[in-house]
Write a structure and sequence with these properties.
single chain, about 325 residues, mainly alpha, two-stranded antiparallel sheet
């Protein structure tokens, strides 16, 4: 095969007109090379990737709106794109949860040490169950407690249900046992469904942005800001998970002040509003997002874990 007639592309069989295929972009000079050349190429490519990641990380920390502004102005080649940042931070968050043993949500019922016999009693209101010598707690972004429901508590309620003198008391105790099982399912499903849920919730976040920060802008601009904001939240939650893994025991609400401050700075620069307008819009936007988007999503997860037959029997009793 001569230089004047390079022949067909080895990848797509299109006639070549030079080193690179004009149809698929294949470099026809790529062949098995000495190990030394391959190592040099790997080091070269890695340094380019690392420099872009380093610039992106620095921009995220030092100047919140720089990435957003560069992406909108078409000067984003020096940084990792917002969608890549979002995908990477989501994956890192899930990996951190697996590594740290931290649960997004967990309902825990434990027996207090040295408190004597555990006694379960159905309340006359037909809804509440009282269990002595125990404590219950809802935990967010804390280390996993195993078991989440102490088996002694379940055993005490089962024995109380067997001794119940009325159908209402029995159903009340049995449904409380079932509710404990459902809480465990909710904890696991929140972790399993999170990646899919975030992809569905992100456009809703962008929709609220369009309402509060300008419907004249392209929706994709709000979507880019939404990806960036979710990435910021994941980065803060990753830090919280690592701290709590080593016994920090910090509450999840501590993430909210830095998140709101960081988002407010970015929104003020990205949307070009005054500080007063930005602060109340960010505060109201975040509140409505939690109330009208995140809370209903959590309720849907809880409903999918519910045993409707047990619930109907409880209501009938």
């Amino acid at each position: 095969m001569s230089e004047s007639d390079p022949g067909p592309c080895p990848a797509c069989n299109v006639p070549l007109m030079g080193r690179y295929c004009y149809d698929c972009g294949q470099d026809t000079r790529i062949r098995p090379r000495p190990l030394r050349q391959m190592v040099l190429e790997i080091l070269s490519e890695t340094s380019v990737i690392d420099s872009k990641l380093a610039r992106t990380a620095a921009a995220l920390v030092v100047e919140p709106a720089r990435l957003l502004g560069s992406y909108r102005s078409g000067a984003s080649s020096r940084y990792v794109t917002p969608i890549k940042i979002f995908v990477v931070t989501t994956a890192l968050f899930l990996l951190t949860l697996n590594f740290s043993g931290v649960m997004i949500y967990q309902y825990v019922r434990e027996v207090l040490p040295g408190q004597g016999t555990i006694v379960a009693t159905a309340d006359p209101d037909g809804v509440t169950v009282h269990v002595t010598a125990t404590v219950e707690e809802v935990r967010w972004m804390q280390r996993r407690v195993t078991p989440d429901i102490d088996p002694r508590i379940t055993r005490a309620m089962t024995e109380a249900a067997a001794r119940a003198t009325t159908a209402m008391d029995r159903e009340n105790l049995e449904y409380d046992i079932q509710a404990d099982r459902e809480q465990s399912v909710v904890s696991e499903r929140l972790a399993a469904w999170l990646p899919n849920a975030v992809w569905l919730l992100m456009p809703a976040y962008a929709g609220w942005l369009a309402l509060f920060f300008g419907r004249r802008r392209l929706f994709v601009e709000h979507l880019v800001f939404s990806m960036w904001a979710h990435s910021t939240a994941f980065i803060l939650l990753i830090g919280l998970a690592l701290v709590n893994k080593w016994g920090g025991g910090l509450p999840v609400w501590l993430v909210l002040p830095p998140y709101l401050a960081y988002v407010a700075i970015a929104a003020q620069r990205f949307y070009g509003l005054g500080w007063v307008d930005t602060i109340w819009r960010v505060g109201l936007h975040t509140g409505l997002y939690f109330l009208l988007v995140l809370a209903p999503a959590a309720i849907v997860v809880a409903i999918t874990a519910m045993d409707f037959n047990a619930f109907l029997e409880f209501m009938q009793a």
